[in-house]
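Workshop exercise sheet. Pairs work together: one partner reads the sequence aloud, the other fills in the structure field after running the prediction. Swap roles for the next sheet.
Pair: D.N. / O.F.
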Amino acid sequence: MIFDKPILFLEINKNNIIIFSGKYNENFDFEILFKDIFNLSNFKLGVPDNSKDFFENIKNAIFLAEKKINFTFKNLILILDSPEIFCVNVSGSKKINKSQINEDDITFILNDLKKTVQESYKRSSIIHLFNTNFVLDNKKFDNPPVGLIGDRYFHEISLFLLPSNDLKNISSSFKKLNLTVDRILFKNFLEGMEKMHNSSKKDFFKINLNKESCDLSFFDNSSFVFYENFKFGSNKFKQDVSKVCSLSNESVDQIFKTISFNGVIKKKSDMLLDKSMFKDNSFRKISLNHIFEIIDARNTEIFNLIFNKNTNILNLKKYTDNIFIEVEDESIFNNQAEMIKKNFDHTFNVSLKHKTHNDQYLNCSFAAELISKGWDREVIAYTQDKKSLISRIFSKIF
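Structure field:
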């Protein structure tokens, strides 16, 4: 059997780390041996910190897993939630002069495109590479058209890169713990895998509306095509209400938790904020409709920046009408879902979901599936120069 030892997955996101370990059975299904979540501090959003405390906490967390399953890890697969990751889309072509296209033709284009990107982004390293489009004589194919006859072949790929310094720091930091990073996986890709698995959709936009930041991903025919990070989040709604209405953060939190702003406030324009909401403030007459308008204005601004007026995705909108939105703040999900949906044209199918604690192991679960079974559209991934067994198996051209 190829995987005869436990495998360690480590996810680092904005407020905790997730330890996930198990073994593959004879059917390459993953059997979980250990999983746990550890809250951490003192590190940059989604990126390991070189501080002693940070890695001491990781070391202790991994030790608990090793003790539980009686195994010492030497390698790990790292899942990152990093705003430093960025996407590049490139395409190339080859004239084949009415001959049969073969794997060498496609390999030539892939290598040439990869070289071009590496030369253009010398300070960054590729962590994911996806086949995006296969076009032979203006006809689009779902798979490489090997064996077909044509005149000119076009091939498009999307690459996800991480600054090389970040990559170097990650590798050297884990080496201090006697751990080698076999592969780095981008959290947003794994989230896309989960959506494709549960919704059967292959084409969609996905928006993560977090408290302090937002990000937008686009998947086309099972390929991860686009990603963009934004340095603002849903906390802007609360900050605006606090500032404009001169209310304490505690009062604003209570308002957001208890009052629904899903379109009904307009019908109750004469209603005032109840006295019970003034936790640390003197009572003042503040209409619910006024608060609604404050939230609605910021809501519109945020989703215009992310989606409606985002010039980076103008050409992508024609490929899908599906939008998945995951909301971190439960009060906003419960009481502002309709406000969020109305920001989008009626031609889009918008689905909202609250990120719950039950979802926290999903990325690791899909990472385990990716490592054992691969992904049809992924071409290559980051591995160490000295390739591990897993790297040799899953680093591939097709």
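Discussion prompt: Residues 109 and 115 are 10 Å apart (CA to CA). What would you look at next?
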